[in-house]
Amino acid sequence: MEAYIKPFRDSLAKEMNTVIAQNQHTISKHAGESELGNVLADAMLKKAQQYSGKHVDFAMINLGGIRQPQLPAGNVTIGNIFELMPFDNMIVLLALDGKTTKQFLDIMSASGGLPVSGVRYTISNETATAISFNGVPFDENKTYTLAISDYLANGGDKLELLKKFKQQSTAKLMRDAFIEYFSEEKIVNGKLDGRVIKQ
């Protein structure tokens, strides 16, 4: 049995140890804006737009979906990405009306802020204020396209308000999107840029 399994084990180990990028410094996740959260949310937004061929206003990832607290400095392997995102969650798009978008951002604010890309806001009294999308002030009369996991779109993490919106699937796993993104970027330089400000 061991002789039978060994080639498969060796092949898997070789794939998991494949280096796809270099991380310039250790980056971590935490509530609010974080370096690791920014990198993964930026990856989500960029790949969602590529997969869908449409403009996507913003992306969001829940902290619980990022299963490692840090990404160490140095080589980034495929195995590292599997450790960060072990679940088979798909990227889906939701077209949210302005009122729901504000409610969604308020929910994130009440939890201390979650990884986002494409949107900036200030947390004041656990609500989202000074909201802008790609530099344009929030307009409650507009529709905003959100890239998010199918788990959250289906109401996970108490996001029941998202369940009523029709999902557009990208047919891509978040994990595969991250592997592609890191492979393309080659150099990871996670940093804070003030996208989530706490008052």
Q: What does this 3D model show about the protein?
A:
The structure is a single chain. With 199 residues, the chain is α+β, with helices and mostly antiparallel strands. It has one domain: 5'-nucleotidase,  domain 2, CATH 3.90.780.10. It contains six helices and 14 strands. The strands form four sheets. A five-stranded mixed β-sheet has the order 7-3-11-6-12. Helix 2 crosses helix 6 (174-185). The longest helix is centred in the first third of the chain and has 18 residues, at 35-52. It is globular, with a radius of gyration of 18 Å. It starts with a helix and ends with a strand. The relative contact order is 0.24.
Q: What best-fitting shape do the alpha-carbon axes yield?
A: globular
Between the first and last Cα atoms, what is the distance in angstroms? 60 Å
CATH class category label: Alpha Beta
The total count of strands amounts to 14
Q: What is the name of the CATH topology?
A: 5'-nucleotidase,  domain 2
The string of secondary-structure elements, in order, is HEEHEEEHEHEEEEEHEHEE
| Strand order in the sheet with the most strands | 7-3-11-6-12
Strand content: 25-35%
- Tally of distinct domains: 1
Low-confidence stretches: none
Largest sheet: 5 strands, mixed
* SS field, number of helical segments: 6
| Overall mean pLDDT | 94
- Based on CA atoms alone, the radius of gyration comes out at 18 Å
The CATH superfamily appears as 5'-Nucleotidase, C-terminal domain
Main structural class = alpha+beta
In CATH terms, what is the architecture?
Alpha-Beta Complex
Percent helix: 25-40%
